[in-house]
Amino acid sequence: NKKRDELNYFHALFSELREDESNFFNYFRMSISSFDELNRCLKEVLQRQDTNMRDCIKPEEMLGITLR
């Protein structure tokens, strides 16, 4: 759901952090490229299926919360 993504704290913070490499590194303790590579490797394992009742948590968000 696009509206949920717009109101999501992680979504807003993550997009802001990606604009500044040093802030991103301070928050996640890894570079943006390292995060993207780790996300690419784990995406299939972390991906869940949306249902009629709810949208699943995106792999990127799962990874970000886990690393934090």
Characterise the protein shown here.
The model has no long low-confidence stretch (mean pLDDT 87). Helix 4 (32-46) packs across helix 5. The chain starts with a helix and ends with a helix. Helix content is 71%, strand content 0%. It has 68 residues and is mainly α.
Shape: flat
Strand % is: under 5%
Which regions are unreliable across 5 or more consecutive residues at pLDDT < 50? none
H-E order: HHHHH
Concise account of the structure shown:
The chain has 68 residues and is an all-alpha fold. The protein is 71% helix and 0% strand.
Secondary structure: elements and pairs:
Elements: H1 2-7, H2 9-18, H3 21-28, H4 32-46, H5 59-67
Helix pairs in contact: 4-5
Keywords for this entry:
68 residues; mainly alpha; 71% helix
